[in-house]
Structures are given as structure tokens and as C-alpha cells.
């Protein structure tokens, strides 16, 4: 009997080892225009209990950087390369543009497919091209797409430029409801369908709390909404991004509405985490959360907290995002904070290493594999991180070149030491001329990166008419 038991243990050992080495499920949750000061774990008055729990159970990345605007961040996140390499540098892709993310770029789901990730879903906002099927997410490595191609859709009607932009794979979706809740529902559904032997990848790209500012009444009431009082900004024609102009989803103030939008998204994140736990896979799933850029600062909506600046700026408030990562099965210690300079372009190489992908990347990556830093096996790295438009981080130094950006009002190049000056109040360029000279030389090669084709500005529309149901037919 002892020999039989020993033989059984020997035969079972490869199965046991395979189970221990099983690749984790990966879920990236991206918020849209969520400010540094708009989460509970940064002291906000906006209630985000699920994100706060994620911070307690996971690791807060206190110096996590993005591009200062939406589409460029999504490029870097999915490619591991700075977005100016793809011609997406300072703006987003408008509905009337024929521009899209370079189809020669390898995206994260394409890389993960080679590592055995059978299911690879994008749920929510794409915003990386819609003029032809070659730009469609299901032609870029994703096996499922549920959500919208454009940005700034109406949350209730899902309309943009007079046509409904809501899709299930390659066809229009007839699902109706509030966009944030529809995204959550689909994410939970996919977790139930994908949980199994093979690892899965989900990119949950909420459009909240990006404008137009609209929220369900139940969430507005949690912030004191009184339907007997006037709604904010109700007017005709429609408020920016809204299609009806009837004030649907408006609270009494923009800030009240914004807070309700954030809490609704937070509730959705809680439902996603619960679905993982219900399936018994929460400890074997990497969950990464961050915003795509800083708060828009429109009216009295998003907050940059103690940081300086907003979306569109290379100030910390525009590019430093609230960010969390949780992977209990991977040994990440909950409730810790890491001040390593890292960000959106590091996700591709880090997940590439975690997934055990041995093949060389199709193109040179700008990001680094920071898994050794996250798991504590390596110390803090002193590295350069390009923020775009003349801005560069190098360790604790930050340079921003004055290149005529009127919204930043620089009046000359500036140099900061971060920390301790996270709020960027003291320009130390004069006190450290050697550092200034070194960083100015270091940023020049990044600034010189150009693509053969670059995205055009946001206008004009030039008589643009949206396709029926935003269905792509051009190949």
C-alpha cells in the first residue's frame, strides 16, 4: 500500500506543479477622467468603498503615470510603447476622423493569445479608431467587444452624433440602460462564462466619470439630490455630449452628479470583485485599476486633490493617476504602497513576463517589466519616464519644457523635485543647472519620435454624418 501511495504521489506531482504554475487571470479596470482627489483612499468626500477595499487588499501605486489625455493613454497601455510612435500624441480620435491605431502595432490581447489566454474581452470604451474594420477591437486580438467605439457618448441613450454607439462584437447591441451599469453587467457575465481551466483577460474600460455628466437618480439621491430643486445646466440644444437636451441624469449640481457617477462605477467594481470571489478565482486574478488621466476640472466636477493641474496638462494633476493592483495568489502584500515611478507603458512588458511569454516583442517596448519591484524581489529603479510634450521624469526629478502650451502658463522651462514637492510649487531649475541640462538633453530623443501619420485635430466636422448604428462596414 505504501508503494501504491508513493506511486500516486509521484504521478500527481506534475499536475500539482502545473496547478501551482497556472497563469493568472488578468482584469484591467480603467476609469475615464477620474481625478487623484476623487477616491476615498485619497481622502475624497466621494464614497468609493470598493476601491478603498481594493487599496486595503492590494498595493497602491503612488507614482503611476499616464498621458494627459484619453486615446494616447489607451495606446500606451495596450502596446507598451509611447503613443507618439503611433501618431497619437496630444488629442483623441474624434467621430469624423479616419485615423486609427497603427495596425502594425502588437496589442496586449494579441501577445496574451500566444500565452494561452483563450478569452480576451474589451468591455466599455475603445476610442482607438472606427473608420474601418481593420481598427476594430476584434481585429486587434480581442475575442469579444461590448461597448462603444467613440468617446463622450450619452450615458442613457448611448448616442453620439445622432446615432447609437453600442455594440456586441461586430453588431449593434439592443441593450438599453445606463452605460456604467451595462458595462458592469457584461463584465460580471463574462467572468461567469470565462472562469475555468484556461486563463482569461478582460479590459474593462468604463467611460465614467467622463462627461457628459449624467447619473441614475438612485445614485444622485445618495448625494442629496432633490428633484424639486433645479437641475444643473438644463438647456437646449443638448449639453456637450448629450443628445436629448432634456437634462436626463442631471443632479442639482455638476459636482453632485459627478460624485454619483464615481460611486456608481465603484459599485460596479465591487460587483466584479464579488463575481471573482463567487467563482473562487479572486486570489488567482490580477486586478489592476487606474484612471486614464487626471480630472477634467470642468466647472466643479473632478478634483486633483493636493496635486497641481488637470487633464491636458503635464502637471502631476493631469498625468498622475490613482492606481491599485491586487494579486493575492502572486504574493502581493495587501495594504502596501509603492512609490516607484511607473505607468501605463509598463503594463504590457510586466504582464508579458507574468504570462511567461518568451517570444520577443514585435517592436521595441518603452515600458519596463516592473514585476520584481511589485513583488519585492528588486529594489526601486531609477528610470526615465516620458510624459509627452516636453515633460520627463528621471527618478525624483521632473522637467517640463515651455513649448507654448497656453493652458499651463509656464513662462519658461521648469524643474521640480518630486518628492518632496509633489504639488510642484518650487521651480528649482536655477539651483540645479546640471540636472536641468541633463534632463533637457535626455528628453530630446523622446520629443523627436514621430509617426508617418499623425492624428488630426478635433475639428472641423466638415458635414460629417455618422453611420447607421455606428456600424463599421469599410474594410
Overview of the structural elements:
The protein has a single domain (about 25-380), classed as Alkaline Phosphatase, subunit A (3-Layer(aba) Sandwich). The protein contains 11 helices and 18 strands. The chain has helices at about 1-20, 50-55, 70-80, 110-115, 180-195, 215-220, 255-280, 315-320, 345-355, 370-375, 435-445, and strands at about 25-30, 60, 65, 120-125, 145-150, 160, 165, 165-170, 170, 200-205, 285-290, 325, 335-340, 340-345, 385-390, 390-395, 395-400, 415. Helix 5 packs parallel to helix 7 (about 255-280). The termini are far apart. Residues about 1-20 have low confidence and may be disordered. This is Arylsulfatase. It holds the Pfam family Sulfatase. InterPro entries: Alkaline_phosphatase_core_sf (IPR017850), Sulfatase (IPR050738), Sulfatase_CS (IPR024607), Sulfatase_N (IPR000917).
Short description:
It comes from Pedobacter yulinensis. By secondary structure, this protein is α/β, with parallel strands linked by helices.
